[in-house]
Write a structure and sequence with these properties.
Blueprint (H helix, E strand, L loop, with lengths): L1 E3 L5 E3 L3 H12 L10 H8 L19 H11 L18 H25 L13 E3 L6 H7 L7 E4 L5 H17 L4 E5 L11 H11 L7 E6 L9 E6 L6 H10 L1
Parallel strand pairs: 4-5
Antiparallel strand pairs: 1-2, 3-6, 5-7, 6-7
């Protein structure tokens, strides 16, 4: 079979010469060899290849005591010891530390014994039974000073054994009498209410009458009494000479 080439050449496809031409045309294609000149490039750039890392024993292989010591010594080569001059150190003997702890425990036990027997060291203001309040425009420090006994107590009333309505009427009459006699520092004994099933009823009522009822206009401050005057079972009350007006109360509320 003859084939006419585009340039006018006539080729015989049945002969071996056509296969030779076809094979020759396929072998003339260029191969892609991107790393052919890599060695020359490395030599010209004077690059030094890093050596292979030192082979360490696999985790499953047990090391001898000497090998472990060598590894630890190599890892601790650049370690610098700490100086202990500025750090706390244990006492020279363990007994000194134990003795100091025992002294602290003995002091705490003696303070507890003194508190139980004499009541010395008991701070009412740090208990849940302590209560205090101040009227409008009054410095809160007045209540603390009142609790500390900075104001003289000129009269007192004992509400023990009274029912709530009777106690309320007695307290109102007592406050009116004190204002008429110009007695501004008074003591109201109401008890701690330890026998109450939930909370001290009369104690909470006295606090409410003095801070929310009609008597609040006459109260400058109130605070639980000192232990010598009844402690949490009594309340100091500091009275005004004249009741505070609603206008002054509103003005004081705006400034706070």
């Amino acid at each position: 079979m003859q084939v006419v080439h585009s340039k006018g050449m006539c080729l015989d496809t049945t002969s071996d010469s056509f296969e030779g031409v076809a094979m020759k045309s396929r072998n003339t294609k260029k191969l892609n060899r991107p790393f052919k000149n890599l060695g020359e490039l490395i030599e010209k750039s004077s690059l030094t290849l890093s050596p292979f890392p030192e082979q360490r024993p696999s985790p499953g292989k047990m090391l001898s005591a000497r090998q472990e010591a060598e590894l630890f010594k190599t890892a601790m080569t650049d370690v610098v010891p700490l100086t202990h001059n500025t750090h706390w150190q244990w006492p020279k003997t363990r007994l000194d530390y134990i003795d100091s702890q025992n002294h602290e425990d003995d002091d705490a036990l003696s303070d507890l014994k003194r508190l139980i027997t004499t009541g010395h060291g008991f701070v009412i203001a740090q208990t849940d039974e302590y209560m205090e309040a101040t009227g409008p425009g009054t410095n809160p420090q007045i209540a603390s000073q009142l609790h500390q006994g900075r104001f003289s107590i000129q009269d007192h009333i004992d509400l023990h054994g009274m029912f709530v309505p009777e106690a309320e009427q007695a307290l109102h009459n007592f406050i009116r009498q004190c204002l008429a006699r110009n007695r501004r520092g008074v003591l109201v004994v109401h008890g701690r209410g330890l026998t109450s099933p939930k909370e001290p009823v009369l104690k909470q009522k006295v606090y409410t009458w003095l801070t929310r009822g009609p008597l609040r206009s006459y109260v400058i401050a109130l605070a639980s009494a000192k232990a010598c005057d009844g402690g949490a079972g009594a309340t100091y009350v500091l009275l005004r000479r004249r009741p505070i007006t609603s206008g002054k109360r509103k003005a004081a509320a705006k400034t706070t």
